[in-house]
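Complex record, two chains
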Amino acid sequence: MTQTFTLKGLTVMAALAASTALTLGTPALADKASNTLNVAFAAEPEPLDTYKIAGRQGLILARHIYDGLLYKNLDTGEIVPALAESWEFTGPLTMEFNLRQGVKFHNGADFTADDVVETLNTVITPEYGTRYSISVDWIDSVEKLDNYKVRINMSKPFAGAIEMLADALPIYPHAFFAENGSAGMAATPIGTGPYKLISQEPGIRYEMERFEDHYEGSPKSGASIDKISVRTIPEMNTQYAELMSGSLDWIWRIPPDQAAKLESRVQIISAPIMRIGYVGFAPEAMAGDSPIADKRVRQALIHATNRGAIVDAFAGGASKVLNTPCNPAQFGCEQDVAAYEYDPEKAKALLAEAGYEDGFTMEMVFAAMPRPTAEAVAADLAKVGVTLELNEQQYSSGIGKWRAKELPAFFSNWGSYGIGDTAFILSNFFGGGADDLVQDAELAEWLTEADTASDRDVRSENYSMAVKKIAEEAYWMPMYNFNVNYGLSNDLDFTPHPDEFARWWAASWK
Amino acid sequence: MLSFISKRLLVALLVCLTVSALSFGLMFVSGDPAIAIAGAGGRAEDAEAIRVAYGFDRPLIVQYLDWIGNALTGNLGQSIYFNVPVTEIIGNRVGVTLTLGFISFLVALVIAVPLGVAAALRPNGWLDRFALVIAVSGQAIPSFWLGLMAIVVFGVWYGWVPISGADTWQGYILPVIVLSYYAIPELMRITRSGMIDVLATDYVRAARAKGLPMHLVISRHALRNAVLPLVSLAAVQLGQLLSGSIVIESVFALNGLGRLAWESLLRSDLPVVQAIILVLSLLYVVLTTLADILNAVLDPRLRGNS
């Protein structure tokens, strides 16, 4: 966000000067000596009640403090036990969990079934105001069967349920939570996680310390760093200076051009993530009275856009052009689909066929995307006679206009909550809801089947049909999968993950 | 004098009301707060739930009256983002901004006024030229660039001061230098031009003719007259410095009011934005009113007929 008022040229000069300055200065030491990991975020973390957090910064901190019933090992794709030792579906809408014994909260309380029941039964009530209803609205109620056994009754079939229970729905200590509620948890976060919060100035600074009593057998066990200190430093250039001088060990979301400049001084790692960029087309916008309602026009627009060049120039790293409206890393994201290579001549022919040989003018709002990418799309389309009226807006304004059906094209991105399952992207945009400006009944039916079936083959088959149809109909112009550049102290050993949840408990010094 | 002050205060109150009403309306024009709060991954259902929960579905005028009614009783509401009382958040952040603002203002005044006077005494002399260079560069160099350069040289290169944060008093050194450098040019130029005008007047010539030493001519006669426009400008400058510099606070990672306002705008944290705007408009109004009163004290002609 701070980028909006910095002038790029000067920023680059500053970065250059910073690197020259360092060659003259003394090489600084990272905090390997005191075994403290110094971290900076550019955005302020939200209060640390996971259920009300939207931003990745707060969620990362929360996942170090709290644990869920299950955990997903992203290296193997397996769901593994965490606070629950084992689980099974006892009916189409019921699941039973055997809980782990001997687990302690940071305040010394023992973890039992009461904690699971109190936490989940509270956060599913509408009054609680859980930020993403999709994360809990499939839970009808939770029952205690004995001290270490609970049953979850589902309100509807939801294939993402297990994914959600894998660390996205943390368990709070019931007595403290019942008494202090969401605000109390945020003020004094108490979990079972590998790190406990020692002090915080909300939004500004957080100090965490390794929790020595973290339960054995935890998928988050083995933390070797004693302390983690997290600060908010909004200006990226200031972060670079601190990283180079050794007072920071971990920063992220470094723009590609600046990552390249920093590479000679610090460790830079680029890693692909779940988030993908897309241009959504809205056949339903303007009551269907726009060129975008014509399939040939949509196909022409994709043929006319040189997405390969855009990715190389502005995304770099691990990003690649996509043909699907989902991330290839997600379950159910069929890759054998219609692809539209860069071919302006074919685009012109398709436009002529649709009756637009002289082109047309259309508005496109872009939000949370780098301006140059939007301008590159507009420049490519101009070559086939289509004039894009570009309009940069906050995501909230853009999606508001989209939902009001006033926008033929919307260029933005979607992170799928970092979850590797197509359920968390397609249903929102093609399942018949407010964000679905295609309103294709067949698609909605396949997606409902895929989202609710418990048989993986049935799910995969339905997603495959849906993904193929979306590509064939050119409802979206998928752009590219995002990548994140991490800037690390040369002494730090850190492995990034595609879900954008930093796992500092697995980090160590070289 | 009393009616002068009461008139000023009435105008001040109206200004505050207008500003708060305008800002309230603009928040809604700039985007749907419910969607903004739901976040980039929020579905339409989430936004609707938030709309109802925070009462954004009520008519705008009702929401505004509700807010102003609470504000008048001292209740500025809860921050939507932080889920704690707005007064607590502002209380946490205002200290940094006030410290930075006041010190920078004092530093700027202490440098700008003597430099302006000295420049006026010998127009086009070497000191005047030097002052001009300071003024032009101070106006032309973007403060974030100057801030970053200062960080690189004094923080990274020499390691004399902390790079960012305000944990120690040393953390304020660079931000104060950068912020006051930005405030100096205007203050200095207005002192200089005021002094040049006054020094050319008959009463200054008379004072010098009767043999008064130059330093008394300046302090007793010239400066008192030249200072009137300076007072008005200084009030506005102080207001600007105290309302927090988004840029300086971002570059040096100081968590003050300026950046809080900016971030709250982006995340549609209406109660925080409204409270900051109210506090800042009050601050401006108080400062300009004080400046007017001070000017009236200094110059009886400004008090009007009453």
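Note: Chain B has a mean pLDDT of 87.
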